Known about the structure:
The chain is 84% helix and 0% strand. It has helices at 2-23, 28-44, 48-55, 57-60, 63-81, 83-111. Helix 2 (28-44) crosses helix 5 and helix 5 runs antiparallel to helix 6.
Amino acid sequence: MDYIRAFIVGGIICVIGQLLMDGTRLTPAHVLVLFVTLGVILTALGIYEPIVEFGGAGATVPILGFGYSLAKGAIKATKSSGILGAFTGGVEAGAGGVAAAVVFGYIMALIFNPKSKK
């Protein structure tokens, strides 16, 4: 059941993003920024946590989940370190995912022969 819930929640998030790109003049970059910001705002309001509990990876893997991770890190660090934690907590929380993306991207570039689009 966990896989089905993750698939449904992640699919709904992706459908919303696709509809925004197809039905408006928003570019993928605009949708990316919108989703990260929305993830932070929904987390700060306490709305995104129940979605994460229900959807699991379907809610944390898409780009909304990155905003969720940033906000959770900032909130946690603010409670322990004060106002300075608001600036450092999000960076610390997101560092592992960003580092993994860079490392795995580099490994794939070494294994495969990347070509630029023409």
